[in-house]
């Protein structure tokens, strides 16, 4: 009788502990909602001076080292957010303009993303040598989408992730780069799978700042394809920002490191500036861009 009582007591304690753990463990979607708040809803516009550095690499003594001279691009980036009906839905417009090296100067990319589920993001690339605007494929049935300025960031990587495009599962927690983090598995919905190169993404989310510290991307065959890392995070104008990060392509052994050299949030940005007019009308673009540059000097 005593052994039965002991068994029941132990079982009750186990159930109680499991219930308590379930009550204290946060919901995975709630975690990613906070991430979306920080990444996309804490500001209305952003003006940035950025640098991309891309090279092939090898692993030597546990560290990555370039095997060629890195391709370095300096560019200006202006984006503006337009909240839609749902708080976590928004339209977004971004214009990126290369200012260095001279051989690429004037190359520009315009992206227009939509809250509407059925509208794919539009990417338009202007090549000054050809004096033409061409559309960049944002979705492909068989291959990864186009690269952003020849980097290891694809247009899909650069696009805003919509909360409703994924299901979420909390896989655990650990300390990553000295920061306590939740580990979240993101699986594309049935519709999103037809529009994405990735079968799943594993994200490490900073518990305190709700910033993604690392993401592992798996291709459609389930292979670990890319890894995005936040190398530096700081608060600018009250907004937690990844000011330095990397995208490592594990298949072709190429890596892009990006840096936000200067950033300013919540500045007035003319809606007309974020249109195809700014790709081809140099005088118009420079007139407005010179004013925006004043915010990040």
The CATH class label is Mainly Beta
- Whole-number radius of gyration? 22 Å
Please name the CATH architecture: Clam
**Number of structural domains:** 1
- Poorly predicted spans: 1-23
The main sheet comes to:
14 strands, antiparallel
Provide the CATH topology.
outer membrane lipoprotein receptor (LolB), chain A
Spell the H/E element sequence: HHEEEEEEEHEEHEEEEEHH
Averaged pLDDT, please?
89
Number of strands: 14
**Terminus-to-terminus distance:** 79 Å
Number of helices: 6
Q: Tell me the name of the CATH homologous superfamily.
A: Lipoprotein localisation LolA/LolB/LppX
Helix content: 10-25%
- Secondary structure class reads alpha+beta
Shape type? globular
Work out the strand percent.
over 45%
Question: Outline of this structure?
Answer:
The protein is an alpha+beta fold. Helices cover 21% and strands 45% of the residues. Strands 1, 2, 3, 4, 5, 6, 7, 8, 9, 10, 11, 12, 13 and 14 form a 14-stranded antiparallel beta sheet that branches.
How are the elements arranged and paired?
Blueprint: H1 2-24, H2 28-41, E1 45-60, E2 63-66, E3 71-83, E4 90-100, E5 108-113, E6 122-127, E7 132-136, H3 155-158, E8 166-176, E9 179-188, H4 190-193, E10 198-206, E11 212-219, E12 224-236, E13 239-249, E14 254-265, H5 277-280, H6 282-293
Antiparallel strand pairs: 1-2, 1-3, 1-14, 3-4, 4-5, 5-6, 6-7, 8-9, 9-10, 10-11, 11-12, 12-13, 13-14
Description:
The chain has 297 residues and is an alpha+beta fold. The protein has one domain (31-293): outer membrane lipoprotein receptor (LolB), chain A. Helices cover 21% and strands 45% of the residues. It contains 6 helices and 14 strands. The protein has helices spanning 2-24, 28-41, 155-158, 190-193, 277-280, 282-293; strands at 45-60, 63-66, 71-83, 90-100, 108-113, 122-127, 132-136, 166-176, 179-188, 198-206, 212-219, 224-236, 239-249, 254-265. Strands 1, 2, 3, 4, 5, 6, 7, 8, 9, 10, 11, 12, 13 and 14 form a 14-stranded antiparallel β-sheet that branches. Strand 11 (212-219) and strand 12 form a beta hairpin. It is globular, with a radius of gyration of 22 Å.
